[in-house]
Amino acid sequence: MEILKVENLKKYFPVQKSFIEVLFSKELEFIRAVDRINFSVEEGEILSLVGESGCGKTTVGRMLVGLEEPTDGKIIFKNKDLTSLRGEERRAMHRYLQIIFQDPYASLNPKMKIGDHLMDPLLIHGIASNNEAKKMAIEMLERVGLVPAEQFFNRLPYQLSGGQRQRVAIARAMVLKPEFVVADEPVSMIDVSLRAAILNLLLSFKEEYRLSMLFITHDLSVARLVGDRIAVMYLGKIVEIGGVDEVIHEPKHPYTAALLSAVPSFEKRDLRIDIKGDVANPRSPPPGCRYHPRCPFARRECREIEPDLVGDTHKVACHYPLEIRVD
Ligand SMILES: Nc1ncnc2c1ncn2[C@@H]1O[C@H](COP(=O)(O)OP(=O)(O)OP(=O)(O)O)[C@@H](O)[C@H]1O
Ligand SMILES: [Mg+2]
Question: Which is higher by pLDDT, 326 or 141?
Fold first, then answer.
């Protein structure tokens, strides 16, 4: 069963122009951070979202949890279109949709005790009385390995290490028993030696709560490890989506193949596809396929016509998809 479905989701940010720029052009310009994307996530499934810096991953995640208003499109969660809900109804649905941020230092309030970070969401959503909330907070601190929980409960964020803070961030999201979590690069700012433990903690909730997840990362090897399926984003578009094995072993988009060639642990594989140049500017994406200026296989059609994302379970947006198998 589908828990989340995104239809033609779009986020354009207006560009702040200087006075001189306004004089010479009256047209409003936009950063096309997310440009009409479609995907769905099944109950209990993890979809990994990968792509280079600036391609729009965080913006997708922020729209899902209501931190950013979509410019257009639908977010259907548990059969309700979140973009059409307002006020109380919307807040009630968002209880089941939580986010874990990349930066464990910025995501906690420095003046607030760890325990209050966990109690607040329970009290705000009216789920528990003060005493119950405290009990649930302590239980959750134990569950995420912050013991003795009573001690951690009374500490302030600065008294915790980065890894411990990320455990608090996970605990804060999980205390509401969400059905869907957006994890935005949850281990990229954590010491390498602690990453596996944090990932395992996150995954343990998947089993326990039958949790679904959008797992955002720029690292394909992490995307493979964690995800059931992988979606590859390029400049505001999903260019390929499919099962982990399909995407890793039978990449169809030259961009996916190039990303795979760059993963050190995959290097022994017989795959060498390079990317030319830098990411284009989302203010003025190239016409046709947005990847064409960097694609070694681009032909005339690619420069003129934007390809649709097509296919059955394994979809690709490319006029000339690759047909390769790499083991
Ligand atoms: N509030 C905002 N106002 C204006 N532009 C924004 C805003 N938020 C994001 N952008 C722009 O939208 C584009 C996508 O940003 P986003 O943060 O979603 O990328 P990302 O894929 O998460 O990158 P990273 O891997 O570096 O985290 C970027 O060009 C960014 O500068
Ligand atoms: Mg980001």
Answer: 141
Closest CA to 252 of 236, 268, 267, 238: 238
Domain count, the chain: 1
Ligand 1 closest atom vs CA 236 = 14
Residues having CB closer than 6 A to ligand 1 are 13, 31, 33, 51, 53-59, 218, 282
Q: Which residue has the tokens 């140049």?
A: 277
C-alpha closest to that of 206 among 2, 46, 51: 46
Mutate to test the pocket of ligand 1, among 10, 31, 50 (most ligand atoms within 8 A of CB): 31
Tell me the best of 13, 29, 238, 278 to mutate to test the pocket of ligand 1, counting ligand atoms within 8 Å of each CB and taking the most.
Answer: 13
Give the Cα-Cα-Cα angle 228, 232, 237 (nearest 5 degrees). 135
- pLDDT, tens digit, for every residue of 138-175? 999 999 999 999 999 999 999 999 899 999 999 999 99
Is residue 146 assigned to a domain? Answer: no
pTM score: 0.93
How many Cα neighbours within 13 Å face the side chain of 294?
22
Question: What would the pLDDT profile of 221-247 be if each residue is shown by its tens digit?
Answer: 899 999 999 999 999 999 999 999 999
Q: Specify the CATH number for the domain of residue 10.
A: 3.40.50.300
Distance 62 CA to ligand 1 centre (A): 10
Domain annotation covers residue 171: no
Q: Give the nearest ligand 1 atom to 68 CA.
A: 1
What ligand 1 atom has the least distance to the C-alpha of 282? 29
Ligand nearest to the CA of 56: 1
Of the listed ligands, the closest to the CA of 60 is: 1
Q: Which of 238, 317, 227, 232 is nearest to 41 (CA)?
A: 227
Residue 136 lies in a domain: no
* Residues of the domain holding 17: 2-96+176-316
